[in-house]
Write a structure and sequence with these properties.
By secondary structure, this protein is α/β, with parallel strands linked by helices. The chain is built from 13 helices and nine strands. It binds adenosine-5'-diphosphate and magnesium ion.
Amino acid sequence: MGPTARVCLFSRNPGGPYEIVPAHMFLNAPEPSLTATAKVIAFANQKGGVAKTTTTLNLAVAFAEEGHRVLCVDMDPQGNLTMSQGIDPDGLKQSMYDVLVYRTSIRDVINRREIDVACASIDLAGAEIAMSTMIARERSLQKALAEIAGDYDFIFIDTPPSLGLLTINALTAAHKVIVPVQCEYLSMRGLVQLQNTLAMIRENLNPDIDIEGILPTMVDSRTLHAKEAIELLEENFGDRVFASRIRKTVRFAEAPVKGMSVLKYDPDGLAAHAYRQLAKEVLSNAQR
Ligand code: ADP
Ligand code: MG
């Protein structure tokens, strides 16, 4: 957690205006650091449909509920994160494509909803080719984020289902990676490939990048297969596997249709609770 989280006088009241924090809460807080910057977490797995977007959004909203200032960056041309907050990607004048290719300020593509979202639209699919001849093409996102890193405590990056240049930009800009994994044997094999990519990024672009945790998603606890898949994950990745589990429920499919997180759509449900639990786990790991 960045030091700014503890010293801001105003904390974001989820879904509402800023609220004033009582004086005693900040008088004992450490001095704000001039170099305070957001902690950047990428959500990656080259497999599609493993709950990357769902996790990015719902964990971000859970962090915002805890008073943190959170930006989500949509780096997937499918714009699912953008849509999950009720924003039509086709109606956007500018998107992450302009940020990455034309160096448009990222502030110009941020829309404020439950959390702030730097939006994507389908044109982002052309960004990999457009960036391919640019110098330092792997660092376009990192440069864009530098401008606003002081405005947020956390920046979450949703990535597309590939290990191409968009994902490499995300992993180069990030401090940590969270890897959502669907609890099936075949999904887990892809983790080796992701680890190889991370090793390449560590060697060439971002020496400190590391896995914050592996998140079992869509867990159907009634099946033996899910139980065995989690055991396999724990055998291979030990305490890198989060203690939190995200169970399978139709709520996750329903909420985006309404343009909301599950925490807003069904605030007292098990699905919302699971992401609040994960937020506590990630925040307490960050303080270790
Ligand atoms: P990705 O971004 O990895 O492609 P998504 O987050 O878009 O994956 O999830 C894929 C689909 O699965 C979506 O329709 C989403 O609503 C649904 N989904 C996500 N998490 C769960 C869950 N825990 N239980 C049931 N469905 C889920
Ligand atoms: Mg997605």
